[in-house]
Amino acid sequence: MNAQATRRVGIVGGGSIGIAFAVVFARAGWHVRLFDPAAERREFAPAEIMQRLVELARFGLLDEATHDVAARVDIVATLDAAAANADLVQECAPEREEIKRELFIELDRAAPPHAILASASSFLATSRFVDETLPGRGRCLVAHPGNPPYLIPVVEIVPAPFTDDEAVTRAIDLFSEAGLQPVRVAREVEGFIFNRLQGALLREAYCLVRDGVASVDDVDTVVREGLGLRWSVIGPFETVDLNTRGGIASHAQKMGPSYARMGAERGQNDPWTPELIAGVEAARRSALPLEQWEERVAWRDRALMRLTRYRKDSAQNDS
Predict the structure, then answer these.
(1) Separation of alpha carbons 77 and 82, rounded Å
(2) Domains of the chain, start order
(3) CB atoms within 10 A of CB 309
(4) Computed from CA positions of residues 140, 142, 143, 147, in that sequence, does the dihedral angle turn out positive or negative?
(5) In what order do the strands lie in the sheet with 8-12?
(6) If you average pLDDT over residues 208-236, what whole number do you get?
(7) Where exactly are the transmembrane stretches of this chain (predicted)?
(8) Which of 7, 56, 259, 281 could form a disulfide linkage to 61, CB 3.0–4.6 angstroms apart?
(9) Quick one: average pLDDT of 74-100?
(10) What percent of the chain shows pLDDT beyond 70?
(11) Which long-range contacts (CB under 8 A, 24 or more apart) does 171-174 make?
(12) How many angstroms separate the Cα of 30 from the Cα of each of 9, 72, 87, 178, 280?
């Protein structure tokens, strides 16, 4: 066993995210204690965890036997038992301020002083449910995962203004040890990064259906067979950087006015200012000098070819 096996996490909430986090940490070698106030949830949790482990093993995504991983998860009957001796406590309760507020008061009391207290909140910032008078407020933050986190590894680390920098650094280290890819969100905004990006696409998707431009299936097809394919390999900034010779600055010059008109059509006035474009271009050129542009385009195409080959093979195997 490696050093990570000595880590301990308490998970509060046995719904889909709590179960998924139990899989993530157990697979990484952590000792997991899972608590839910509902006895029925505690009863069903072991079978649900095993079901997910069996599926991961089926696709070669476990390095150990399923029962060995599952054995690291203890279902406990109290919040105190979940938080005891934890390095990290991951709250996975419903998205309601009053519930999270009461839970964090209890967690701050029950967890050891060194433990990070993290919420899996999708939209609510820490300062919405942690009062600045809470003694341990400096270790409280949001750790919002992709769903399910055992397949979508990104986790957004969102500190409040009162969160200690040292706690943020430790949280990033802990989630990295667990095999996730932490992204630090620089300041609290509702929805953070993940859901603000997803929300922008969903708002336009609903509008396109409402306005009779496309059907629900048409929109899903464009994303699944178009945008989604590219975005499974590279992100939106790199996509447009590689789509236009000359890079992202050239793309902004050629396409920026069209995007501005589309935004104005929806009542949104967020122009790409020269300063903003210059900042984004500088970030991209730092990641990819223009003299390496052709090489990266070829890499993108090979990555899409591998993905296309996999999808084709999977479709044949399923038929």
Answers:
(1) 8
(2) 3-184 (3.40.50.720), 194-318 (1.10.1040.10)
(3) 10
(4) positive
(5) 73-76, 31-35, 8-12, 88-91, 116-119, 140-145, 154-159, 181-184
(6) 97
(7) 9-30
(8) 56
(9) 97
(10) 98
(11) 171/88, 171/116, 171/118, 171/141, 171/143, 174/7, 174/87, 174/88, 174/116
(12) 7, 7, 10, 8, 38
270/256 Cα distance (integer angstroms): 11
Peptide bond into 148 cis (omega under 30): yes
Structure tokens at 260: 């501005």
Helix, strand, or coil (residue 148)? coil
Tokens linked to 247: 């890079």
Each residue's pLDDT tens digit, 97-126? 999 999 999 999 999 999 999 999 999 999
> Does pLDDT of 5 surpass 60?
no
Instruction: Please give the radius of gyration of the chain, using alpha carbons only, rounded to the nearest integer.
Output: 22
Pairing of strands 116-119, 181-184: unpaired
| Angle of helix 274-287 versus helix 236-243 axis, rounded to 10 | 90
Evaluate if residue 4 carries a pLDDT over 60.
no
Q: What is the pLDDT of residue 319?
A: 62
